[in-house]
Amino acid sequence: MTSGPEKLGRRSIEEKIRLAxxxxxxxxxxxxxxxxxxxxxxAVRENVAASRxxxxxxxxxxxxxxxxxxxxxxxxxKGIEDKYSPTLxxxxxxxxxxxxxxxxxxxxxxxxxxxxxxxxxxHVICVNYLCxxxxxxxxxxxxxxxxxxxGQELDAVFALHEAIxxxxxx
Length: 170
Ligand code: SF4
Ligand code: SF4
Known about the structure:
Elements: H1 13-33, H2 38-58, H3 60-70, H4 86-94, E1 112-113, E2 116-117, H5 124-128, H6 132-137, H7 140-169
Antiparallel strand pairs: 1-2
Helix pairs in contact: 1-4, 2-7
Bound molecules: iron/sulfur cluster (SF4) (2 copies).
The site of one iron/sulfur cluster has 10 residues, from loops.
């Protein structure tokens, strides 16, 4: 490939998902086997799992569930999906995630499904966001702990994203 998937201009989320599937069909097996990609995929898996555990431990997961079930919906708003690039979506396919084929809730992010976010590798805006309710109700030491783990997740996602871009643009 001479031009990377990020250089293709502004596209709808459906087009980006289609492109991610095309890239996965063409390059997925080779990417998984590549010595620069495989270990980074494993690192993202581990760091995403650690972040999820930390969110459960400090109470963020429960707070978000309360929003979802009792307070009219989560803050995963419509349009946030536009932050996602084909490469980030490809990473989610390589992490065995199933990308949605339609928006589940009209006014919510395309990737918000019946059981929360359908993605494993998320954009920095999604990983870093802490609303006022969380900042007011969760102890500062727990927030710092969560942010440390989240930072490691973002480092791992960034390293994988860059490695895949280098591979596809080589
Ligand atoms: S981040 Fe805050 S506003 Fe968003 S779903 Fe969680 S608790 Fe609700
Ligand atoms: S966390 Fe997931 S569902 Fe929520 S805004 Fe981000 S991508 Fe969308």
